Each structure stands twice: as C-alpha cells, then as structure tokens.
Amino acid sequence: MAEPYNASVADRSILHLDMDAFFAAVEQRDYPELRGKPVLIGHDGPRGVVATASYEARPFGCHSAQPMAIARRRCPHAVIVPVRGRRYSEVSKQMFAILDAFSPLIEPLSIDEAFLDLTGAEQSQGAPEDVARRIKQRIRDELQLTASVGLAPNKFLAKLASDMDKPDGLTIIRADDIDRVLPPLPIERIWGIGPVTAAGLKDVGVHTIGDLRARPIEWLQARFGKDAERYWNLCRGIDHRPVVADREAKSIGHEQTFSVDVEEPGEVRRVLLGHVEQVARRLRKHGLSAKRVSLKIRFGDFETVTRSMTLPVATNVTTELWDAASRLLDAWTFQPVRLIGMTAERLCRGEAQPGLFRDPEHERQQRIDAVTDRIAERFGKAAIKRGGVS
Ligand code: TTP
Ligand code: MG
C-alpha cells in the first residue's frame, strides 16, 4: 500500500451529496407548470446536447450528454428548456451555504456535488446519519429541492452510495457491507475506469468489481502499471484520498472592529485571547487542527496588515494557538488598534502525528480544553473566562 495503515484514515466518516436532476429540478421548481413532466435541459437545435433530463424523462432513455435529437425521438412529449447557467450557479451557492453549517471540510466536486468529512464531528453535530438527514431536510425546506446522500468510510464508497438510491436517497455503506455491496457492481463503477479501460477488461472476462478482485496484484501491475495498487485497493473498498477543502473554506477566523481606537495594550490582548479561544473551540468542535496562525490588525485609520506564523506541529490547543497569536502581536510596536482578528489556517483533520513526541504539557492542555468546551457547551461561552493574559 502507498500509505501505511492509519486508523484515523481508515475509520473516517465521509458524506457525498449530489443534487437530483439538478438543472431540471431547478426549472421545475421555478416553473411549476413543468412539475411532473418529462423535461430536457439543453439547446433545442440539430447540434443541441442534453445537459440533464428530469426523472420523468429518464424512463424513456433520456440522459445527460445525449444529442437532443435522440432525446426528442425517445420522448417526443418532453418539454425542452434552455440552460440558465447563472440561475443554477446561484442555487448551487445556496446549497453550499447549507453544507457550510455542517462541516468546514467541504470539497466541492461540481456545481451540484460535494464531499464532507464528518470524522470527529459526532460530538458537535450528532451521528453522521442524523447529519445527512438534517442536510437533506434543509435542502428540501430552504431550496425546495432534493439531494441524494451517501455515507461511508471513504470517498469512493460514499460516492457509490449516494448514487444507489437516487432520487432523494440516503444510503450508508459500512465497512461490514463492502464485501457484499462491491463485488456485483460493474467495473465501470471503479473511480478512474472509463469506457475504454472497461471494454478492455471485459474482453478478458473482468466484468464486475468481484472479477477484478479475483485477479492477483501481479496481473493488475502488468496491466495498469503504477495504477495497479489504486485499483487493487478500490475493488476492495480501500481509498485513502482525503477530503480537501477549497481554499476559501480552509480557514477558521474571528475578528472584531472597535468603534473607537483601543489605546490600552492589555485590552487588545484580552480581545485577541477571546478570538483565539473561539477559533480554537471551533477547530476542536470539528475535529480539526491548524498548521498556521494569522493575525490581522488595523492601527487607527491605517490600512489593515496581516502577519502569519507556521506552527511546528498542527494544533487545536488554545494555549498553543494563543502562544503563536500573542507572539505575532508582540512583533508590532504597540499603537492604538481599531481592528483585530485571528485566523487558523492550513487546517487538517485531527491532530498531526498523534502519539509522536507526546508532550505531557500538551496533553494536560488538551484535557483543560476538553473541560472548558463542555462547560461552554452547557452554560455558554460567557461561563469561561481564561485568567492570566500574559
Ligand atoms: P449530475 O449530478 O451528473 O446530474 P443531475 O444532477 O442532473 O442528475 P442526478 O440526479 O443523476 O445527479 O450533473 C449535475 C448537473 O450538471 C446537471 O443537472 C446538468 C449538468 N451536466 C451537464 O451540463 N452535462 C453533463 O454531461 C452532465 C453529466 C451534467
Ligand atoms: Mg446531480
């Protein structure tokens, strides 16, 4: 295997979401007269192509990427609606805004599709299955649309799962289900195997994922070279690819603008500590750590400046983040401050290298954080006041 076995990688909780008949569903929502009817989205001309077909049109054999002329022949009573790209982008943004509430680790795949890593979010968000239901419900309530969701220990399985009960599905593939669910599936379902590769495999009697699994690694190596290991893993339901959040979402920050300049250095430090505590709590809530800390500061009417520091090891421990933030603050000669903000960047799942370099002070601080988080959750943030601002 390319990567060593790692429990935190193997036991993840990955959610894949894909909107149902996205463009067509938006049109049917915006134009009620289209509801319940076969709808083809795309240009109605000799060279037109179907972007998508509503679920009512699919039983007739209409689907994405098909020449419009063929789709029309298959379903002559379908309503053809031109693509309104900007409208779908707007709705897509609204969908992603809903997802944002559930995890900062969101990887957008396309206009209507995303992965979320919910590993470690159980305490704050509830069981992944509940999260999936709540996401679907919010999409239904707020967007009047349906989505299909898959939950699994990795990306490959989560994407397979979301496709298994479309539309409006919620499918869970657990580690125990892999040996039952995967083998009967056609090999095209393996990520990376396109129609050409699939045809070649079928020629030699490999039709299903189970057939591919039965071939020894040497056979795969001879056929696929450096991709052999990936396919060997995928047909066994093994996929270590991480969920990679997009750049924008890849930070958690907090800032405050004051109505007047704050002239008292101690006051600025207290406010900054409050920001650090909030950011650290949010990191822990989502099971994330940060490898970089950024400070944003505005002195009086001057322009805003930022300074960053890369940490030796990613952390979500309040004191360690505070240590970095206060050092950044001290690097400036004090002047009255109008705005101060702190951002945790280069987020990663959990703690980097758990178990390595175990530092008793780090562990002690982790226990303190865990207690303060529980208190804050129960009694509100105001219940926690960290003492010594040093
Ligand atoms: P998909 O998620 O592939 O399809 P879908 O949402 O229409 O249907 P499903 O319920 O099976 O998920 O793609 C999302 C949108 O992207 C789709 O509504 C239209 C657009 N699209 C194209 O324009 N061309 C294409 O070839 C495909 C596959 C999609
Ligand atoms: Mg879709």
Reconstruct the topology from this structure:
Layout (H helix, E strand, L loop, with lengths): L6 H4 L3 E6 L2 H9 L8 E4 L7 E4 L14 H7 L4 E3 L3 H16 L5 E5 L2 E5 L4 H4 L2 H16 L3 E6 L2 H8 L7 E3 L5 H4 L13 H9 L5 H5 L3 H8 L3 H7 L16 E12 L2 H21 L2 E12 L5 E11 L2 H13 L6 E13 L10 H20 L11
The site of magnesium ion has 4 residues, from β1.
Give, in order, the helices and strands. HEHEEHEHEEHHEHEHHHHHEHEEHEH
Indicate the radius of gyration in whole angstroms.
Answer: 25 Å
How helix-rich are the residues, as a percent range? 25-40%
Tally of separate helices? 15
Extended strand count? 12
Oligomeric organization of the protein chains: single chain
Major sheet details: 5 strands, mixed
Shape: globular
Contiguous uncertain segments of 5+ residues: 1-9
Order of strands across the widest beta sheet?
A: 5-6-1-7-8
Give the cofactors and ligands. thymidine-5'-triphosphate, magnesium ion
Find the structural class using helix and strand composition.
Answer: alpha+beta
- Note the beta-strand portion: 15-25%
What is the CA-CA span between the terminal residues? 48 Å
The mean pLDDT is 89
Please explain how this structure is put together.
Strands 5-6-1-7-8 form a five-stranded mixed beta sheet. Helix 4 (85-100) runs antiparallel to helix 6, helix 11 crosses helix 12 (228-234) and helix 13 packs antiparallel against helix 14. It contains 15 helices and twelve strands. With 390 residues, it is an alpha+beta fold. Helices cover 39% and strands 22% of the residues. Bound molecules: thymidine-5'-triphosphate and magnesium ion (MG). Residues 18-19, 22, 112 line the site of magnesium ion (MG).
